[in-house]
Amino acid sequence: MLAAKVGRSGETAGQLKSLKRSLRSARRDVLGTGETGRPGFLGIPERRAEMRECMVLAEEVAARFRTLIVIGIGGSDLGARALISALGRDDRGMEVRFIGANTDPEEITGLLRSVDLKRCALNIVSKSGGTIEPMSTFLLLRDRLIRKVGRRNHARHVIATTDREKGLLRSIAGREGYRTLPVPEGIGGRFSALTPVGLFPAACAGIRVTQLITGARKVRDSFVKKPSGGAPALFAGLQYHAFVRRKQNITVLMPYADSLRELGQWFRQLWAESLGKRTDRRGRTVRVGQTPVAALGATDQHSQIQLYNEGPLDKTVTFIEVERFREDLVVPSTLTDLDGLSYMSGHRFSEIIHAERAATAHALKRQGRPNGTIFIPEISGQTVGGLMMFFMAATAVAGELLDIDAYDQPGVEAGKRAMYGILGRKGYSRPGR
């Protein structure tokens, strides 16, 4: 990421020195010494009662049902998808399926054809209960479930993760007798992966959620204790300077591990929805925000790296490298008479993927393309929980540096209002052509 390595597209020593002073102030503001107050996600490690509630309910549900169907969209399901993709890889827990992030009737029909609803639990996740994609899907699955098991029995299959006191889904859950889990106050959806929103599906999948929280706490504590905010703040600061000083308005997250693919999708929403804003805190039009791209190594070396290496100088790239994989294999020593293949013989697949990441970083550096690597020792509950806290803290710091509200999403609402008008919801007008 530094100019000493990549030339004019990188951070100079003087800029880095100035940045570290800015990070001290930004960290203090994130911790609540500024006007905005301390963000709720920093208190997640202390929410032990909610974690235990998720674990107890998950054990009960897993004893009764084979499959959990999570119905949500955006912050209501991307975190759970990331956790289960990374860690839900053994036979300890339930099968977890996801639906409700789209209203594609073919996708929903495909799910219904592939599961036995009698053996499924439904986890509808919505703070308000008014989001059309998951709620329309829930209403359909609820109707099909009632046909299978009867209205009286269907409530045993449903868990609603929603606002603790108010909202449509809270009212429905009370009327129907659904068990509920809380969407915590003060923690927005895209910051909620390590709350019951993500922890309950993770626990159902057999993931040790205590390890997730341990990893998150370690990163949070480091961020709080270090005057400049440590690695999360430095990541935010380098991205901030890349954007405002060098017009690098695209940031790519590229883990070299297939199980972290969904983490990239989760990061994409977190960074885009938090930092893409029209106005600053004073109401001035600023139109800021990097466009996050979720890539996957080594797969996207063969689809995107050509652009990153030789295209516009408008990107930063962040790799994630896993030191030790949970499984490993060796390329067989066969066909060794062929020069184009013989060099592979005897190499572990982990060696190959490490070499691919290092080679890609080297090629980008040679072309003057800023890039950095986050190294983790392994894929575990602690490292995944730590990565999530890392990126949440980085997002909060970036918001302070940009002087915007990182916790709202006004740009999402305009499309919702137009859609309500098109579908004839009372009180909303149909948009003109």
Could you write a compact summary of the structure shown?
The chain is built from 17 helices and 11 strands. The chain has 433 residues and is α/β, with parallel strands linked by helices.
Number of helices: 17
Helix content: 40-55%
Q: Which fold does the CATH topology of the largest domain refer to? A: Rossmann fold
Mean pLDDT: 95
Number of strands: 11
C-alpha Rg (nearest Å)? 23 Å
Uncertain runs = none
Report the portion of residues in β strands: 5-15%
Our measurement of the CA-to-CA distance between the termini, rounded to an integer number of angstroms, reads 46 Å
Supply the CATH class of the largest domain: Alpha Beta
CATH homology group of the largest domain: Glucose-6-phosphate isomerase like protein, domain 1
Encode the helix/strand succession as letters. HHHEHEHEHHEHEHHHEHEEEHEHHEHH
Explain what you see:
It is built from 17 helices and eleven strands. It is of the alpha/beta class and 433 residues long. The protein folds into two domains: 232 residues, Rossmann fold (3-Layer(aba) Sandwich), CATH 3.40.50; 167 residues, Rossmann fold. The model has no long low-confidence stretch (mean pLDDT 95).
Please describe the topology of this protein.
Elements: H1 3-6, H2 13-33, H3 48-64, E1 67-71, H4 78-87, E2 95-99, H5 105-114, E3 120-125, H6 132-149, H7 151-154, E4 158-162, H8 168-176, E5 179-182, H9 196-204, H10 209-225, H11 230-246, E6 250-255, H12 261-275, E7 277-279, E8 285-288, E9 291-294, H13 305-310, E10 315-324, H14 339-342, H15 349-366, E11 371-378, H16 381-402, H17 410-423
Parallel strand pairs: 1-2, 1-3, 3-4, 4-5, 6-9, 6-10, 10-11
Antiparallel strand pairs: 7-8
